[in-house]
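Final report, Chapter 2: Outcomes

The project's central promise was a pipeline that accepts a single protein chain and returns its three-dimensional structure in a standardized token representation, suitable for archiving and comparison. That pipeline is now operational. To close this chapter, we reproduce one record exactly as it appears in the project archive, with the input sequence first and the structure output second.
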Amino acid sequence: MVGASLDGREDQAAFAARYDLPFAILSDTDRSLARAYGVLGPGFTSRVTFLIDESGIVRRIWKRVSPSSHAAEVVEALREPSRAR
């Protein structure tokens, strides 16, 4: 599991600590990743999660997420039989 943010490393570290995130957050300060996934808005990104399998296929998209509970939702989706590896 990995996240991405337009923010710099210090802001990412503070966000991860505040929500006790169990994964790394990549820095997308050049906004290339946000553009590629279609989540770049005017000066911000939408908080969207993509579940991508080992082959690079997007299996699920969450368009509205809450930082305080979303990691558990993703872990639950990974445990679904259809997501079995």
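Archive annotation: The chain has three helices and four strands.
This record, like all others produced under the grant, will remain available to the consortium after the project formally closes.
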